[in-house]
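lol ok so funny story. i was supposed to be doing the assay writeup but got distracted and ended up predicting the structure for this chain instead. priorities right. anyway since i did it might as well share w the group, maybe its usefull for someone
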Amino acid sequence: MASNLGIKLNRLIKEHAYVGGSLLRLQKKAEDLRVEYEAAVTAVNEANDYREVLGKKIEELSAINLDDIRKIKETPRKTDQPLGSLTRELIRVLKSIDGPITTGELVQYIVKLYGYPYNTLAERRATRNAITGPLNLFSKRGAVIRMPCLEGSQQGRWQWVHHATDNQP
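and the output, tada:
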């Protein structure tokens, strides 16, 4: 069906309609950002108020100059789990297993339990490091023994110390 308005006018009307649609999207985005900005301003004010309260308590207890206290960069937590829950779960698993368990088996268990991301190579490395870090610390402190790898495998095997003396080859 041919348009009687002409090509130039049709194109202008179509462009006007598209701009109107994007204008609605941009107005919603601006409103969302305004709400987010107001929440951020409120959070900043609350943090400043709390910092002043803490500063007054410090001044009551000591003669420390508050300007000399170095700020610590906040690092967000990676999971919603309580602090130390991964370490406690690793200890529980290692104690409950009668023999050694591979790093891969521990990683798969923790990924399923806590829902750690495990899709990309970077996520797999980060998850594996989050698990092997405490294992290496346990080993350094003598609570866990890293058993020799099985032939044809590069995966470490870990065993809680009180089980390790019973099952040594």
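Residues 111 and 117 are 7 Å apart (CA to CA). The two ends are 86 Å apart (CA to CA).
back to the writeup now i swear
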